[in-house]
Known about the structure:
Helices cover 80% and strands 0% of the residues. The protein has 121 residues and is mainly alpha-helical. Helix 1 packs antiparallel against helix 2 (36-61) and helix 3 packs antiparallel against helix 4.
Amino acid sequence: MNTAYLGARRIVTLILAAALLIQGITAGLLLASPGGRGIHRATAILVVLAAIASLVVAIMTKDRKQIIPAVMILLLVFLQMYFGFAHFKALHVPIGMIMFGGVVHTLGILYPSRRDTPVAA
């Protein structure tokens, strides 16, 4: 991957992961309180903007391994919005979980673990 955009890709993906986590929390508020719908919609806008930013940065890397997952996440976000507005919770909730899992997986790729190689004695 083009390392010039690695930092931007990491930051945008972290923001997207945080937005999806907040979206899950506000989903609980939506079910628990009458004012939760407005908060859930407001954080949905944050998720859409973060997904679009993620795609833009992925396109700037010119790496197909970055672009395809970003496109998939954005498509899932739009599908998620459709099911949310249609009040079709049977698919809205699982797709949200899939999106969060996909973004966490992407974070695992962007932040590889640092393993020290054992020193032979």
